[in-house]
Amino acid sequence: MIDFLDKDNLTIDDINSLIENGIEESVHLDFKASGSLSKNDKKKLEIAKDVSAFANSDGGYIIYGIEEENHKASKISPIDGNEFTKEWLEQIIQTRIQRKIESVKIIPIRINGNIKESIYVIRIPVSILCPHMTSDKRFYKRYNFESVQMEEYEIRDLYNRTSNTKLEFDNIITKLGFQIEDEEDVFKEMTFQVKNIGNAIETNYKLIIYLNFRDYIFHIDPLSKQKNFNHSIVDTETSSVSFHSLTPIFPGEVLTIGTFKIGVSKHKLQDILSYAKLKIQLLYSNGEDIHEFDLKNLFYNN
């Protein structure tokens, strides 16, 4: 619901939609009334504390200029943009947080073009340079609706963020065809891709595809002689296809991990498509990524 805050051309209509829909604060979203901005040191520390907490956690948005009631956006609380400028906010973030947080973006919204009625949306990324310390020599994180001081072990864990990998399942490329000798047999070719969205090279990963319609499958085979391919029986109704890592996957890289071809009888196809699913489980050093797809959508997505 708050994905639209990633836009660079935010408008007052976007802000009003938060209020109209009663959007609630979370670990990724914080509302601040105009009184949260002040030039005394205590308020400046609060700004640094809140921004660093998001960067040390999972990123998110702080919106200065919205009042909250019971943690829900309730009404606009405009800021005088002449007194509290975008540059003033940037300076606090840059000088009161160490190490500096890269790619923080402040988007000003002027109500009816009036700088004296401003709203600031601060977009804070997940930081790979964490942990970030504020000018009070403390480290903070997001917890529920607030920024709280981190425990010592949590700070130590953050130092490992830059060395942790994070993979996600990226795409299934499909191709539908028929057996040349017998057009009653339907074949589907599926190519699976994974992406490294972390900051380190991953060498140890495995993709498992669970098929819950084993009795209807008469053919399943890798498209070519893939050394990382395995097909096994899970239980009376389910079989699985898996591909394990053969090459490292670098940060930002999308890698095709494997392709297999599955065959079913054409006259049974509609029965299968009414319930059949593929469960995708991607395992890697620091976690897993799980998705589920209706086979019907894959068969008709050529």
TrEMBL record:
Gene Ontology MF annotations: ATP binding
Domain Schlafen AlbA-2: 25-150
This protein's record includes keyword Acetylation: no
InterPro entries in the cross-refs: Schlafen_AlbA_2_dom, Schlafen_AlbA_2_dom_sf
Superkingdom of source: Bacteria
Gene3D superfamilies per the UniProt record, alphabetical: Schlafen, AAA domain
Pfam families reported for this sequence: SLFN_AlbA_2
Record keywords: ATP-binding, Nucleotide-binding
PANTHER family in the cross-refs: GLPR-RELATED TRANSCRIPTIONAL REPRESSOR (PTHR30595), SCHLAFEN ALBA-2 DOMAIN-CONTAINING PROTEIN (PTHR30595:SF6)
Protein's name according to its UniProt entry: ATP-binding protein
Organism of origin: Aestuariibaculum marinum
